[in-house]
Recover the amino acids of this structure.
């Protein structure tokens, strides 16, 4: 049951509407074995179907795992330079198709083309180039074991990696996992998020031209059947998951039962702390970037708890609100748009539920009501930037990940007090410190409980940095050479007596 590959032309959005996309298993484009399909709907044009994708279930997962296992020995045995060549060739194709991927992901996710989708498709290409570049760095060590001994370690692939992706920045998350796992000699079964699978299928197609069949398999389906089957499959040697803390807990539990290693990149409620010496426009811009307003706040690293020092509270907030009021909410494909649409009705209802809760409180003031910024005539899941002022760190609005363009602002006076509030969270993914006094800033950076702290800047991750969370924001690191070695290789130790006929040196006791 083969179906056509996704179209390769730089088709306009209209050309793709109604199109059936296949999944990629064992080098073929296939339907689900039970023939079920799912509509992929547009976040920015309510009711518009962008295409249909197969709804994979356990038998499809099994088929993909078998394909990945069959391809593993050949791929793992290649010299690293051969894998490097393939990944660098893919990177070249990704750069060449970056605009097409950006437009497709803008449609798929609702993220604005100019502010989000283009930078994301570039980052994807950078990640393939980076991991292609470091593919030859998967090295072992030799121990100084003495004459006649060769004791060395090799780093081997973990095996078949199951990767489960979210919808909020699918290309970038795919870029954290796919080239890193492949560079280290693993083969993969990747599950795209049900809400934004199209660019992942197009990515699979671009990769396919450079990889042997079965090395990369890409499935589309729902979490409870396809995702759960990947996590539980005994042929999946490692699960690399990015998504919510709630689902991460389930994935970690299921994989843990069969003692399969997992990496979990989960949610966040990151603090952004402004000291009184930083009440300036550059910091306002940085704070709003850190909040990821231009991704509608749908980012795990969003600095969604803004702590403003009382001395500058009103002035900073006024400047921030004035800047946010200039943001253009609109069609993701429009070059003028700063903020696109939320992903779907469920997410829209969830986020607006938090907003309603905030509005209903007597003790909070609404510094900016985002609903007023949505132009009439747009029929998608749009919501403008929303800011709640003089919030308390103990409120649900300040504790839970809203995953929408909603920021809570909390006043503070004392460094100890604000660091205690920043750390009073079950999350620990990112943090942003805004302070011209670098001694004070770095003291805070060291004391904040999170995997990533930025000082006086709020942009995205740097390719090559080890990225990941602490506390309930995750386990493990990705995005770097170290992360690749930690997440996608395992060490084997080999001890050799070089001259077998001679007396053996005394060694340490065996356990
Ligand atoms: P989600 O947890 O609902 O889904 C993520 C993926 O898991 C999807 O592919 C889904 O189909 C799958 N899934 C769902 N149930 C499953 C199950 N029982 N077993 C296996 N797989 C299952 O998350 P989402 O709504 O797609 O994404 C938003 C969340 O992701 C937010 O919480 C965000 O913070 C987090 N996120 C984290 C990072 C990070 O790097 N830490 C990056 C992006 C998103």
């Amino acid at each position: 049951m083969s179906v056509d590959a996704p179209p390769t032309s730089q088709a306009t959005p209209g050309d793709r509407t109604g199109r059936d996309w296949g999944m990629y298993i064992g080098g073929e484009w296939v339907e689900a074995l039970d023939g079920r399909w799912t509509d992929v709907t547009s976040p920015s044009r309510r009711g518009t179907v962008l295409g249909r994708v197969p709804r994979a279930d356990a038998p499809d997962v099994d088929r993909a795992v078998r394909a990945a296992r069959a391809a593993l020995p050949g791929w793992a045995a290649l010299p690293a330079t051969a894998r490097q060549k393939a990944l660098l060739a893919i990177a070249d194709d990704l750069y060449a198709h970056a605009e097409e991927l950006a437009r497709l992901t803008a449609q798929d996710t609702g993220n604005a083309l100019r502010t989000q989708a283009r930078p994301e498709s570039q980052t994807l290409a950078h990640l393939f180039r980076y991991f292609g570049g470091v593919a030859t760095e998967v090295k072992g060590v030799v121990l100084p074991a003495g004459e006649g001994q060769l004791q060395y370690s090799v780093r081997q692939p973990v095996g078949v990696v199951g990767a489960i992706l979210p919808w909020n920045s699918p290309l970038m998350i795919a870029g954290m996992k796919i080239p890193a796992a492949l560079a280290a000699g693993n083969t993969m079964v990747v599950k795209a998020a049900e809400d934004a699978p199209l660019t992942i299928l197009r990515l699979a197609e671009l990769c396919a031209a450079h990889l042997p069949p079965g090395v990369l398999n890409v499935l589309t389906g729902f979490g409870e059947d396809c995702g759960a089957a990947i996590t539980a499959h005994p042929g999946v040697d490692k699960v690399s998951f990015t998504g919510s803390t709630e689902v991460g807990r389930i994935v970690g539990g299921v994989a843990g039962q069969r003692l399969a290693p997992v990496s979990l990149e989960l949610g966040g409620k990151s603090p952004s702390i402004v000291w009184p010496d930083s009440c300036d426009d550059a910091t306002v811009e940085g704070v709003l970037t850190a909040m990821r307003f231009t991704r509608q706040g749908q980012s795990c690293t969003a600095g969604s708890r803004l702590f403003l020092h009382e001395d500058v509270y009103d002035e900073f907030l006024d400047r921030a609100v004035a800047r946010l009021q200039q943001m253009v909410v609109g069609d993701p494909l429009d070059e003028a748009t700063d903020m696109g649409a939320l992903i779907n009705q469920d997410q829209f209802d969830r986020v607006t539920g938090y907003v309603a809760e905030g509005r209903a409180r007597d003790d909070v003031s609404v510094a900016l009501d985002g609903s007023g910024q949505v132009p009439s005539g747009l029929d998608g899941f749009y919501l403008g930037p929303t800011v709640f002022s003089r919030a308390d760190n103990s409120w649900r609005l300040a504790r839970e990940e809203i995953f929408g363009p909603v920021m809570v602002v909390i006043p503070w006076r004392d460094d100890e007090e604000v660091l205690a509030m920043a750390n009073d969270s079950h999350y620990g993914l990112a943090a942003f410190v805004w302070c011209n006094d670098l001694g004070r800033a770095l003291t805070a950076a060291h004391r904040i409980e999170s995997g990533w702290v930025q000082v006086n800047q709020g942009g995205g991750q740097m390719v090559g940095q080890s990225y990941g969370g602490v506390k309930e924001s995750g386990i493990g690191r990705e995005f770097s050479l170290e992360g690749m070695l930690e997440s996608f290789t395992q060490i084997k130790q080999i001890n050799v007596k070089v001259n077998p006929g001679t007396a053996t040196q005394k060694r340490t006791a065996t356990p």
In short: The longest helix spans residues 113-133. Residues 142 and 152 are 4 Å apart (CA to CA). The first strand starts at residue 19 and ends at 20.
